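Q: Hi! First time doing this. I have a protein sequence and I read that you can turn it into a structure. Is that right? Here it is:
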Amino acid sequence: MAVVIESVPPWAPKPFIYLLLFASCFASLFLYPYFSKPGFLSRPTTASSPFDLGSYGSFQRFQRRFLILYSIASLMEGLGSLFGDYDGISRENVALCISVGAAAALLIGPILGIVSDVKGPKTACILFFILHLLMCFLKSISGHPSIWVMSICLALASSVFSFCFETWMIVEHEKQGHRQDMLNDTFWLMFFFESASLVGSQAFANMAVKDADRSFLTLPKSASFLAILSILYINKKWNGCEQLTSIGNYTKSLSSLILNDKILWTLTLAQASIYFSMSVFWILWAPTIVADGRVVHLSLIYPCFLGSRMLGSTVFPWFFSGSVLHNEDYLTTAFAVAGLAFSIVAYDYQEIEVLVTLFCIFHACVGFILPSLARLRTMYIPNQFRGGMISLSLAPANAAFLFVLVLGGYCRVLSNTMIMAFAAFGLICSAGCIHLLQRGRKHSHQNWHKL
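A: Yes, that's right. Below is the predicted 3D structure, encoded as structure tokens:
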């Protein structure tokens, strides 16, 4: 008698989850103006219409141009991550290839940040698109280009992406004389559109794969077109914003700033911990979910994470718009919750529904933390050192990521549980650092009133 084995259908999120995330983002965006208290909005009340040609009208045009370019760059980041082809390669060799990229970002990334400040962020933005153009060219001439070169190009492009567009926006914002509190709106919109563009890149990639036989809509051709279009757009629509300083004076001033300002160390730890945890999630979320032979639709789960990140970004203006002096308690809570979510995944076996929920909570915290840290950088880091400081703050994250890749992925000394616990510990330490920063600022404010 034959034995019939029932196949279990792959697990996928319920359709109402996507609807819930979309509705939540929509509600957060459109209910915010009606429920915000007076003075909470950073938008000036003098702007009577979208066609107002006053100060807000010029800011809106500037913001729109920047967000268009940033969304294209985010879309290319998502597409670039799909160029790597690791089929048929062992886990050790994959870890080694990614380690080469992390080492390149660790060694060259800080140098690119300093060059961005000295030569101007426009140069760094163009370099970002040139790196993606190079990856597209290699992918076009060879269906299986060197994964070493692709890994290095992708790592350097991601490193440049982390600071060049934000630095350019800040410099141009100040140059045009816009109000400082308007930056809060741009910060959360940046990361909201970044997450939305990453979702779009997944959908675009699926379309390109289906249309590959017609050779009309392929990833390399589409990404090349976007890169060339963006470079032309930069040269035509944006000013250079070059810094008139020598490399010697810059490094001397930057070294003095780093050695004499303890707040920068706090921000560096917080920045490094969130980027390290995001990198750890990127390499471990799929193996964690499919552990024990579970069959799932990974391509349907990842959009839930990005939707949660979008929702976290829309929450930001509810707490921070119109204020640049307090409310770091919310940021402390976000770091602590993100660390707790990672801790639960690291130390306790969970069903797949619980795992997906915990990862969604982590991404919602990430969506809130990233614009919050950008806001703090604006308060404590001079604009002329912004690119260098962001790139230097990512060096500890790249070093830690390289460490876990070599010991965990290649040598198999560290387990996935230990790597996640390491990331959770960094997030919780960052929560403590932000809390100390908040207490120190309150203490300074009280001393000022006593004078």
